[in-house]
């Protein structure tokens, strides 16, 4: 992905996200020939993904940190405790400047304005690139909508906007959702029957990724924004189509997380990391060797030779520990390495023992050891097929259908040869019982993948309040974030999020 260097095209600040910069405007770059060639378009396309990856940490925080996964014991000072505890006010509003997501959107807007006019040797290549861009813009706006609700809609590159129009008010959630749906449908139309992965690589957006996003979006719209059964049924159809696109559940959990396993059948779209190019964020969920090496894992083995040079700023909550305290579930060991202060006479601790518990190392994206160094270069999935299966379970449940087949397929993979239908199998219940079962399965399956907060939100506020101890009925306004006062100061057309 570092084959090309992306030429940054920005002029001024939009509303509240960037300081004014004296850079070349998109029109000047066009005149200089940047957008006159296929090579220029391909360069810009690569840059779009570099921009996306630079937002990976914020995507993770937005999608997970306010959930019940984290907030447990760390062996260094904890990070983002205000977000974990939903202790947020107008004065302490996080993610100033819309988490820089409009910066990413501006790049895509510029691409969508200019790329269609460029001649390509193969027109199908151009259609594929344009389809990717529409899908990614939908992803960004969906993230903005889920986080802040009403947000400004900007569809033009900065250099094409009159300075007098730079201040834009927040559009309603209904209007933003309409744009998201439109971009999804345009993406699918541009892909057409082409279900290929660009350059054979799942680090680029694809038709399968747009269908995954469509399923996600239409469930949210159907359940939370008045779209009802019609939208949920659209989600179901999109999700069911993905199975025909050479996407399938990996046979076992162990086939997912190693650096050498990133080409597995399950990943649909993932962010790429490579040594000397970029590292993922997960070293902050590990620790330093000086803390880890004196400890023992839950099997009673010494950690004295474990190679690491990370930090431990996020600890799994006790709720998370207990949820995964099942030795027959392969996700227990695949997700965390539990550390204890002694080896229990060589026996270790087959179940959670709080007095001897020291803390955890997140095990999913541990990268690989190169000599005396650990390199955090795992690709990180944004969508994978297990996600699709459980989203399909959600859609079926909202339509009054039986989601047990989907739930059981995930459990069967998790338990492997230990799976016993009589013990671990799920039987269809009431809609609320089914929702809780799906939420629990998604909880265990996607820890650390930036999903849990969005899962609870998509299910409805009552499920948020049932699971998040820091939020209660009456705190509905806190489900959305406030914007900072300086954002309003720079863009007077903005109004504060209702309730703050």
Sum up the structure in keywords.
single chain; 500 residues; mainly alpha; Serine Threonine Protein Phosphatase 5, Tetratricopeptide repeat; 3-stranded antiparallel β-sheet; two-stranded antiparallel ribbon; 7 strands; globular; disordered N terminus
Q: Would you spell out the secondary-structure blueprint of this structure?
A:
Layout: H1 26-31, H2 38-54, H3 56-64, H4 81-84, H5 101-114, H6 123-148, H7 173-191, H8 207-224, H9 228-241, E1 267-271, H10 289-292, E2 296-297, H11 318-323, H12 331-335, E3 336-340, E4 357-362, E5 368-370, E6 373-375, E7 380-384, H13 385-398, H14 404-415, H15 421-424, H16 431-445, H17 452-459, H18 461-467, H19 485-490
Antiparallel strand pairs: 1-7, 2-3, 3-4, 5-6
Helix pairs in contact: 2-5, 5-6, 6-7, 6-8, 7-8, 8-9, 8-13, 9-13, 13-14, 13-16, 14-16, 16-17, 17-18
The geometry reads as globular
- Radius of gyration, taken over Cα atoms and rounded to an integer in Å: 23 Å
Strand count: 7
CATH architecture of the domain at 26-194: Alpha Horseshoe
Number of helical regions: 19
Q: What profile does the largest beta sheet have?
A: 3 strands, antiparallel
Average residue pLDDT: 92
| Gap between N and C termini | 41 Å
Structural class: mainly alpha
Strand content: 5-15%
Helix content: 40-55%
Order of helices and strands: HHHHHHHHHEHEHHEEEEEHHHHHHH
* Spatial strand arrangement across the major sheet: 2-3-4
CATH class of the domain at 26-194: Mainly Alpha
List segments where confidence is low: pLDDT < 50 over at least 5 consecutive residues: 1-31
The CATH topology of the domain at 26-194 is given as: Serine Threonine Protein Phosphatase 5, Tetratricopeptide repeat
